Amino acid sequence: MVDIIDDKLLMNKEKKRLYDIEYRMRTHEIKLKRGKQYYEDNKKTLYIKSRERFNRNRERNLEWKRNHDLQLRTRNRMIVLQHYSKGVPQCACCGELIYQFLQIDHIEQGRKNKPVKLNADKLCVRLIKDGFPDGYRILCANCNNGRRFTKNGICPHQRIITRTLFPELGV
Questions:
Q1: What is the rounded distance in angstroms from the CA atom of residue 60 to the CA atom of residue 90?
Q2: How many domains, in total, are found in the chain?
Q3: Is pTM beyond 0.85 here?
Q4: Facing residues of 104 across strands?
């Protein structure tokens, strides 16, 4: 007796599910047309209500957007730092581990090949989008800036090590 009741319930549920699918397909176009017509008829009112709602929640929305953007930028930056550092984000020259000090460096002529100037956030997005192309490495701010301000582009850390180990080179 219980089995017969269960079978009837299952059949009724299946019939209802099929009917619901068919009903949604039948009424979908009608609802779309109604919605578009309502929007056209009430465009100004809807715009005013939207602006009021935005202004009412402006501070909360802006705070949320700031936090969300910061999380997104940090996540993208960590992905790039981890990829080019082969795991743990660190300077390729001196081994600095504090990620706030780390920067993305164009190896050799990489900067001249890319005429478009990008800030760090946009560069991270571009590198992820392009599939992490070669020609970049991770350096700390000291090593990156030290290379820029020496004539031969050698990091001050490397110059000190070379002078100490090989004084005859005269670097």
A1: 36
A2: 1
A3: no
A4: 138
